[in-house]
């Protein structure tokens, strides 16, 4: 198992939730961090609340502006030098039925969750290839392995990330580039509150399953162990992770169980 001490790690979506918890945990363990999101104020608050703020650099980033990623990678590398690990954590969820959902909502979900993530990854990839080392850690979801009502666009984008990064892992195995896919179940964050509704507005309310989900702090510890073990995929959650195995072996049973669960 490798260690993240003294490594340069870039975290997107670091202003709240899982990204914030990862920042606090990694900063406590001696990593040099670059933290990114759209919200500069919240990033600065996260930095101030860390035990070693001198080891954190703030770099605002908007995944929808994926044409700027090459320039952002150059800025990031000017801070500490080469980047060892990119944690693709930023993203947005959805809560709406297919019949009701505007096409523009699907476009936004793909641009943020998929296109922005692969644009940043592609911008950093040549530097990894040149050094013959590097790790991409991408936070998808259990919804990238099986699906649930009200999340059609979110599921589609997360499934797409698995297809892309599984290919990247194969194409660059000889370059010593590692890819770890992290698939969260329910986590007690603001993901449900920020989820897009049918017309593209934020839902602005939580749900019981999210409230009862794993704490971000506990999740961060489990995620870092998966990263350090160079796992291909890690399913992190409670009972809901069983859905991955049921999808593989008992897909019709999973279908009936999800319909009965009334998860929103």
TrEMBL record:
Database matches in InterPro entries: NAD(P)-bd_dom_sf, Sc_DH/Rdtase_CS, SDR_fam, SDR_family_member_7
UniProt superkingdom: Bacteria
Entry's transmembrane regions: none
Family annotation (Pfam families): adh_short (PF00106)
PANTHER family: DEHYDROGENASE/REDUCTASE SDR FAMILY MEMBER 7-RELATED, DEHYDROGENASE_REDUCTASE SDR FAMILY MEMBER 7
Family listed: Belongs to the short-chain dehydrogenases/reductases (SDR) family.
Xref: NCBIfam families: PRK06181.1
Protein name (record): SDR family oxidoreductase
Organism in which the protein naturally occurs: Arenibacter antarcticus
């Amino acid at each position: 198992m490798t260690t993240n001490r003294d490594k340069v790690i870039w975290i997107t979506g670091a202003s709240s939730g899982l990204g914030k918890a990862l920042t606090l945990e990694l900063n406590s363990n001696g990593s040099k961090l670059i933290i990114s999101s759209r919200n500069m104020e919240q990033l600065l608050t996260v930095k101030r609340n860390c035990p070693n703020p001198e080891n954190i650099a703030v770099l605002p980033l908007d995944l929808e502006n994926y044409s700027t990623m090459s320039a952002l990678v150059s800025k990031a590398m000017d801070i500490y030098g080469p980047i060892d690990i990119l944690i693709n954590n930023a993203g947005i969820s959805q809560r709406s039925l297919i019949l009701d959902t505007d096409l523009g909502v699907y476009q936004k979900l793909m641009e943020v969750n998929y296109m922005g993530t692969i644009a940043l990854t592609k911008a950093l990839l040549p530097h990894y290839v040149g050094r013959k080392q590097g790790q991409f850690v991408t936070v998808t979801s259990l919804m990238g392995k099986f699906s649930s009502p009200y999340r059609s666009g979110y599921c589609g984008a997360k499934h797409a990330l698995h297809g892309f990064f599984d290919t990247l892992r194969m194409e660059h195995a000889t370059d010593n580039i590692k890819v770890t896919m992290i698939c969260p179940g329910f986590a007690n964050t603001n993901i449900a509150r920020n989820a897009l509704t049918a017309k593209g507005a934020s839902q602005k309310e939580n749900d019981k399953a999210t409230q009862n989900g794993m704490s971000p702090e506990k999740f961060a510890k489990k995620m870092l162990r998966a990263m350090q073990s160079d796992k291909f995929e890690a399913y992190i959650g409670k009972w809901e992770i069983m859905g991955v195995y049921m999808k593989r072996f008992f897909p019709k049973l999973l279908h009936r169980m999800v319909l009965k669960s009334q998860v929103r």
